[in-house]
Design brief:
The chain has about 160 residues and is an alpha/beta fold. It contains 5 helices and 4 strands, in the order E-H-E-H-E-E-H-H-H. The protein has a 4-stranded mixed sheet. The radius of gyration is 15 Å and the shape is globular. It starts with a strand and ends in a 14-residue tail after the last helix.
């Protein structure tokens, strides 16, 4: 029983939490629903983030987090959840604008992405409320403030 996380940092972006921290946060989120899992996190720049967002969501510009759940491989790779892509410049800019620490915002985006890999969504109001409630709970257990409160101040 384990949660295996591969973290890819092309270009070695600076100022982000460590791989150990990210793996701990993801493990905590995933363990609420799965005892074993494999996933990859790729930390990208603005250009790669925009290209992925355009290709897979048909939207212009980079976004903070993208999730790519694996489907149809349960019989041969039951632990494989999928990939999470974080865009470092967007993550940092949002953290600053929202007056959050980079760690708190990164943890939130990773938990959010992991929940998408686990089948959660926020397209409908009831789904969004369910997902946000679980995000708040998981982040509180990790020692982070409610990510949906406006103007969270730095500690």
């Amino acid at each position: 029983m384990s949660i295996n996380v591969e973290i890819q940092r092309p270009g070695a972006p600076r100022g982000l939490p460590t791989n150990i921290q990210m793996t701990r946060w993801l493990g905590h989120a995933v363990r609420h629903l799965r005892s074993t899992a494999e996933l990859t996190v790729r930390i990208v720049d603005q250009q790669e983030g925009a290209a992925l967002n355009a290709r897979w969501r048909g939207k212009l510009g980079a976004t903070n987090v993208l999730s790519f759940p694996v489907t149809g491989l349960t019989a041969i790779a039951p632990a494989l959840l999928g990939d999470i892509v974080l865009c470092a410049p967007v993550l940092k800019a949002e953290a600053k604008a929202q007056r959050k620490t980079i760690s708190a915002h990164c943890a939130h985006l990773l938990v959010h992405g992991a929940l998408h890999l686990l089948g959660y969504d926020h397209e409908q109001d009831a789904e969004a409320l369910n997902m946000e409630t679980l995000e708040r709970q998981l982040l509180a257990e990790l020692g982070f403030p409610d990510p949906y409160l406006e103007h969270t101040t730095r500690p």
